[in-house]
Design a protein that fits this description.
The protein is about 35% helix and about 5% strand. Helix 1 crosses helix 2. The strands form 2 sheets. Strands 1-2 form a two-stranded antiparallel sheet. Strands 3-4 form a two-stranded antiparallel sheet. With about 140 residues, it is mainly alpha-helical. It is flat and about 65 Å long. The longest helix is centred in the N-terminal third of the chain and has 20 residues, at about 25-45. It starts with a strand and ends in a 27-residue tail after the last helix. The protein has a domain at about 35-105. It contains 4 helices and 4 strands; from the N terminus they run E-E-H-H-H-E-E-H. This is Flagellar protein.
Length: about 140
């Protein structure tokens, strides 16, 4: 029997691997931070991400991780995180609505007439299965 150990990504200590990939102290600290945020949102559901960070002392990056992972419910309308493309605030997904529109338009663009045409060649093969051997 072998123990699976790893370094904690937050604090660097060695710990036995688990589903959260955090050591026990960092895991309990994350739980405390999440509970602080949920308690604050219970009393002030219209809080923005920055206000929540200022009130609870939880870092903005940790709040963004909570929102992206779904630990802070999307029912709180002012909790946002930055778009991965432009940095504007978004509430769901990886991109904001304007970046999604840009990427959709780029996908619909007509191909250049100067670009080489790709041809698909389909080769068929015959597979033979032998069910018995005859000698």
């Amino acid at each position: 029997m072998s123990l699976l150990v790893d370094y904690c990504p937050k604090c660097g200590t060695i710990f036995q691997k688990n589903l959260r990939n955090l050591c026990a102290s960092c895991s309990s600290q994350t739980d405390r931070s999440l509970n602080l945020c949920l308690d604050r949102l219970w009393t002030r559901p219209k809080s923005t991400t920055q206000e929540l960070s200022d009130a609870t002392g939880v870092s903005i990056s940790e709040l963004h991780a909570f929102i992206k992972s779904g630990r802070l419910p999307s029912s709180y309308p002012n909790l946002t995180y930055p778009c991965e493309s432009c940095g504007h605030e978004t509430r769901s997904g990886r991109l904001c609505s304007s970046c999604i529109g840009v990427f959709r338009e780029a996908g619909k663009a007509q191909p250049d007439s100067k670009a080489p045409v790709r041809q698909i060649i389909v080769k068929s093969t015959t597979k033979v299965m032998y069910t018995s051997r005859q000698r």
